[in-house]
Design brief:
Largest sheet: 7 strands, mixed
Shape: globular
CATH class of the largest domain: Alpha Beta
Strand content: 15-25%
Number of strands: 18
Structural class: alpha/beta
Radius of gyration: 28 Å
Number of helices: 10
Distance between the termini: 56 Å
CATH architecture of the largest domain: 3-Layer(aba) Sandwich
């Protein structure tokens, strides 16, 4: 019979031998990892340092589960992020208001009805909705306005003896972000911001070349509005090769858009041209829609705080709510903003946070609201300068570290899975559809792109072939065109997918 103490001693020795064996295994495993990572680090260092011209980088790649850095290069350096600003804006509005938040636009009546005639004004009060138009109506720009017209007719009204007035006080009157490049003014991605907006703040313009060289091109607009006068100086070229394209120039003091250049014969092209004063644009198109639906309007359409022809807004205590229109849920709008990099949506989100949280829908207060919301979720953005919500301003300054911090915060929230699904996928969707299309990397990078002259950025998540998930940010600024920055970023992502 073996004494009890001897059994204990043998059992203890066996435990110790097992522990030593496992320690040795772990030592071998962990001693291999740094060497493997060192090889990847060297390759990434070579990649980001290649080329003769000056390039500034801020890069951080971390394991999503542990936070352990896989690669870091000046991660605290603040650079121009371009559309990577949308990560801060969209994360903050989702965390602050939730994906079920809906914008509300209200139609009020101020007056009284006599038979089929409404004697008084229609007042459209904006709530910051950036989405009224065709984007969520199958391309039918005025469907929402026609629905409102139908409801007016159902109430027995066929004539409005008064004005159609726009109220946009949910936001302040700053229409553009800080120091936006004036050369962008007519382009869709710099549409003006307003508390009452329609069709992404743009007029859809179709230009069709004539049948022969020298003929004037045919221009049509959607909606077919008289809000802006079209100064058509576009001609038909002799061939596609000789066509010079079209130049758009807004002449706001004349309420006109001048179009010049040349287009190929018999070919149609679609353009999206920004409009001045989106509020006045909204109510003008609404008045025209009412009239096309059989309701006559004797007065005019105007933005109450921008009208120069003595338009008067009735006192609020005389308003009666006729209908309230709600947008798609915020989560749907954020996905549209992220996948298609829709700048106007991001600007509205920034001002909305200011309006909802502090009662002031301005750039300054919206920027403060973004920082405060993200601070509550563990993000320190003291070193971030927020000049706008979309990243169109070159005054924005952020670091890879703060972007990774923000991505981690939203990913760890209850909205993490849905936020990832809102990001473009490499080779699959959004602004990454035509990048990283190889079989090994396709679909493994979900990230937000950023593009300005001399600026490229990509921040999001990488699913490596090893099964590990990384959260990352790569910001690049240079003095020349940014194509080489894009190639560098894509190659870095491919390396991490393969070796991470």
């Amino acid at each position: 019979m073996i004494p009890r103490q001897m059994k204990k001693d043998k059992f203890s020795k066996r435990i110790k031998r097992t522990a030593v064996l496992w320690a040795a295994v772990l030592f071998v495993l962990t001693s291999v990892s740094p060497a493997a990572n060192a090889g990847l680090t060297d390759e990434l260092n070579d990649l980001f340092s290649a080329g003769g011209e000056r390039r500034d980088w801020s890069v951080l790649v971390e394991a999503l589960d542990t936070g352990k850095p896989l690669y870091e290069l000046d991660s605290e350096r603040r650079l121009i992020p371009a559309s990577n600003m949308k990560i801060f804006t969209c994360a903050a509005i989702l965390l602050g208001l939730g994906p079920d938040y809906r914008y509300e636009t209200r139609l009020h009546l101020a007056g009284h009805q006599q038979g089929e005639v409404f004697i008084g004004d229609l007042i459209v009060e904006g709530g910051g909705d950036p989405s009224i138009g065709g984007r969520f109506n199958g391309g039918d720009l005025t469907r929402t306005m026609r629905d409102w017209a139908a409801k007016l007719k159902l109430s027995g009204i066929t004539k409005i003896q008064g004005n159609v007035i726009g109220v946009d006080d949910f936001f302040d009157d700053a229409a553009l972000g800080l120091n936006w490049d004036p050369s962008y003014r007519e382009d869709w991605y710099s549409a003006e911001v307003s508390g009452l907006s329609f069709n992404d703040g743009c007029l859809d313009v179709t230009i069709k070349g004539g049948s022969g060289a020298g003929q004037k091109a045919v221009i049509t607009t959607n909606p077919p509005t008289h809000y802006l006068r079209i100064d058509n100086q576009v001609t038909t070229a002799g061939s596609s090769k000789s066509a010079r394209g079209v130049l758009f120039a807004r002449v706001d003091e004349e309420h006109a858009i001048k179009m010049s250049g040349s287009v190929p014969p018999k070919r149609s092209t679609l353009h999206y041209v920004t409009v001045p004063n989106p509020t006045a644009y909204f109510v003008t198109v609404f008045k025209e829609t009412l009239e096309s639906e059989g309701l006559s309007v004797t007065g005019k359409a105007f933005d109450y705080d921008e009208d120069d022809s003595n338009g008067v807004l009735p006192p609020r205590d005389q308003w009666t709510l006729f209908l309230s229109y709600q947008s798609e849920p915020l989560g749907v709008l954020v996905e549209e903003c992220m996948k298609k990099s829709q700048n106007l949506y991001a600007e509205h989100f920034l001002k909305t946070l200011g309006a909802v949280n502090y009662g002031i829908g301005s750039y300054t207060v919206g920027a403060l609201a973004i920082k405060n919301v993200l601070f509550r979720f563990g993000c320190d953005l003291d070193g971030v300068y927020v000049a706008d919500g979309s990243g169109l301003s070159r005054e924005n300054r952020v670091s890879a570290q703060t972007l990774v911090q923000t991505l981690r915060a939203i990913d760890q929230s209850s909205y993490g899975e849905s936020f990832r699904s809102m990001l473009p996928e490499a080779g699959e969707s959004g602004t990454l559809r035509n990048r990283m299309r190889g079989a090994d990397v396709r679909g493994r990078v979900t990230a937000k792109t950023g593009t300005l002259h001399g600026v490229r950025a990509l921040s999001g998540f990488i699913e490596a072939q090893s099964g590990k998930t990384y959260v990352f940010s790569m910001l690049g600024n240079c003095d020349t065109r940014g194509t080489i920055l894009t190639n560098t970023i894509d190659k870095a992502c491919e390396l991490i997918v393969d070796r991470g």
